[in-house]
Amino acid sequence: MNIVVFGAGGRAGRQAVAEARRRGHQVTAVVRDPGRHGDLADVRVVAGDVTDAVGIERVAAGQDAAVSAAADLSVPPHDFFTSSSRALATGLAKAGVRRLVVVGLASIMPGASGAPLMDEPGYPNEYRSFYLGHAAGLDELKNCDLDWAYVAPAGDFDHDGTRTGRYRVADHGDPASRVTYADFAIALLDEIEAPRHHRAAVSVREA
């Protein structure tokens, strides 16, 4: 398949690129500054802005599916995630790309109580504006016509762990869960190769 990965320079994006290449797919890696990502080997690296629908349409032309792992901490979270969701919806649709898999955030996924993790007692909320920005971006996806999947870790990432080759879909969010970026990327690519979740959000955790 031909897969375009937005935010390919970040930790989740890099692992998505690596997993796609491991499976033999052709990858277009979209980053803000290609000059800073010369280590993204064996892929087409292009400059792009995930909030620019016209640019998205251009780089997505000829692609079979898209992954968005993009974030921009220099922009207010609500503004970034809503504008990126709208731009992806518009640009991908015009390029004829139907399948979009978005890297999500555990905080806005339901916890054991059924409420979002960020609203459960004791959950750290110093980054609540970032959580709410993600939630607003997900709301924008719900209003678009793409076949999207919002895939979030059940808790957080294991930043130092290595690839085990396994993961499982979580029943609910769990702050204690830790999944490696590499195993999380397997879930992302599974949702592209053999989609199981359509216009839905799902949590994944360590196997």
Notable traits:
22% strand; 32% helix; alpha/beta; two-stranded parallel ribbon; 207 residues; 5 helices
The global form is globular
Beta-strand residue percentage: 15-25%
Strand order of the biggest β-sheet:
3-2-1-4-5-6-10-8
**Uncertain spans:** none
The rounded distance between the terminal residues' Cα atoms is 27 Å
User: Over all CA atoms, what is the radius of gyration?
Assistant: 16 Å
Plain-language structure description:
The protein is α/β, with parallel strands linked by helices. The protein is built from five helices and ten strands. The strands form two sheets. An eight-stranded mixed sheet has the order 3-2-1-4-5-6-10-8, sandwiched between helices. The chain has a two-stranded parallel ribbon with strand order 7-9. Strand 4 (65-68), helix 3 (77-95) and strand 5 form a beta-alpha-beta unit. Helix 1 packs across helix 5, helix 2 packs across helix 3 and helix 3 packs parallel to helix 4 (128-142). The longest helix is centred in the middle third of the chain and has 19 residues, at 77-95. The chain starts with a strand and ends with a strand. The mean pLDDT is 97.
